[in-house]
Specification:
alpha/beta; 16% strand; 425 residues; single chain; 15 helices; binds ligand SAJ; 39% helix; seven-stranded mixed β-sheet; globular
Length: 425
């Protein structure tokens, strides 16, 4: 028989032991938040190497603050890191799952990490334990993968809302959506999160509503980025500056501004909408707006490569500055610059890459690397890292043609700047 009262008391007294499964952009900040609030947290990862790195305070994510307090928390013994194993898992009362949910090469949901966690949990005694899925999934996935793996346990979905690289939005200050399989599960999650979060808990009536909210948030973003990408292409045709248009449009209260770019990367925005499309297909429904928006965003690396091709002449020095998916975030997942580089290779346009926030060994797959910035014939902005505002001066001479994949430049530099719906000639 389930007894949520006992578990609620343990949570209130901070006597519960929390297992955070998956220590990446989501799991590490979440673990530290609970540890900082004097909960006992054990982070579980799959490899000994990761444990070693984390115990050295060397998180594989670039956030320096995270690295710093990771070391401190581990020293305080409120936060431990282990390789995942049934015995170690068994000693915990709460399991918060923060594993990646990517898509495969055919853009189909890849739930293998979530399913392997479910398999592990099914092998331990889950009675009166709380499972929280923070991984991003389509509606019905939490129930399907985690709904029948034991007896008398509690199940909640509370999708992560991390914004990597954004210091103003931390785990504790972002409103959190929580949906429970039943009332008792919901009450337990509310009691737990309310002890560490500084923002409201947004309670919804089911696991599916919580899953759907996250899908809508990120699909909304992908669709709106696609819209401005499409408008930027039109702006070029009619010789209007898209940045000027966006500055004007954003003065309207109901317009949430988005910007055209070399493409949409990361493990959320270009990925999550495919989970929705897969669900829609299962329900024999088409979602044309979502589908066409994703396609539109996927044309952007080609759109930019066309500009390079227009100016490139054999023997020209081509430099791509910045290859990660987002400004000042050292993450290459789904980076559109990777696609862009492949296109240039297919079009026999040789280039060098430079990224100030990546180690050289992380750049090897991009082709030839340069560790120094020298004047180039064509300078391409792949990612507008903060350091670009200084770095560009070393690589752009009077005759350099600038292809600006992030519409970074607002004043003409070099021979001319060709952006996306934004030219400085
Ligand atoms: N991008 C554009 N134009 C824009 C905004 C972004 O082309 O106007 C591109 C970026 O260059 C990047 C990609 O889209 O390649 C994703 O950008 P992002 O700012 O959405 O970055 P993410 O992937 O870190 O998004 C996170 C997400 N958080 C979660 O999923 C929990 C996303 O939901 C948030 O909307 C986003 O942060 C945010 O709001 O900053």
């Amino acid at each position: 028989m389930r007894d949520e009262k006992k578990l609620i008391e343990k949570i209130k007294k901070k006597k519960v032991k929390i297992a955070v499964i998956g220590l990446g952009y989501v799991g590490i900040p979440l673990s530290l938040l609970f540890a900082k609030n004097k909960f006992y947290v054990t982070g579980f990862v799959r490899s000994k190497e990761k444990v070693k790195k984390l115990l050295l305070g060397e998180s594989y994510i670039q956030d320096k603050d995270l690295k710093k307090n990771l070391k401190e928390e581990i020293k305080l013994k409120t936060f431990d890191v282990k390789v995942i194993s049934d015995d170690d898992l068994e000693n915990n009362d709460v399991f918060i799952i923060c594993v990646p949910t990517p898509v495969d090469e055919n853009k189909k949901p890849d739930l293998s990490d979530l399913e392997s966690v479910a398999k592990r949990l099914s092998q331990i005694n889950l009675t009166n334990k709380l499972i929280i899925n923070e991984s991003t999934v389509a509606p019905f996935t939490t129930e399907k993968v985690l709904g029948n793996i034991g007896k008398d346990y509690f199940l909640v979905c509370s999708p992560e809302r991390i914004d990597p690289g954004n210091k103003s939005k931390t785990t504790e200050t972002i409103a959190k959506v929580i949906g429970g399989k039943d009332f008792a599960s919901l009450e337990l999650a509310k009691t737990l999160y309310s002890q560490v979060l500084k923002r409201d808990l947004v309670v919804v009536g089911s696991l599916e509503a919580a899953e759907m909210a996250k899908m809508l948030e990120n699909t909304y973003r992908a669709v709106n980025i696609a819209l401005v990408n499409e408008f930027a292409k039109l702006a070029e045709k009619i010789n209007v500056d898209i940045l000027e248009v966006l500055e004007a449009a954003k003065t309207k209260w109901s317009f949430q501004v988005h910007y055209p770019s070399i493409g949409v990367g990361g493990h959320c925005i270009p990925v999550d909408p495919y989970y929705v499309l897969s669900l829609a297909k299962d329900k024999s429904m088409e979602m044309k707006v979502t589908e066409e928006s994703l396609k539109q965003n996927e044309t952007m690396p080609y759109f930019l490569a066309d500009k390079v091709q227009k100016f490139y002449k054999e023997g020209m020095e081509v430099l791509i500055y910045g290859v990660t998916y987002k400004k000042d975030v050292a993450d290459l997942r789904e980076s559109p610059v990777k696609v862009f580089c492949e296109i240039l290779k297919e079009r026999n346009i040789p280039f060098k890459v430079y990224d100030p926030i990546l180690e050289e060994n992380e750049l090897v797959n991009f082709g030839s690397i340069t560790s120094s910035l020298t004047a180039s014939d064509i300078f391409i902005v792949g990612c507008d890292h903060s350091q670009l505002k200084e770095d560009y001066k070393k690589a752009i001479g009077d005759n350099t043609i600038v292809i600006d994949g992030k519409n970074f430049f607002t004043k003409k530099v070099g021979y001319a700047v060709y952006g996306i719906g934004h030219n400085l000639v």
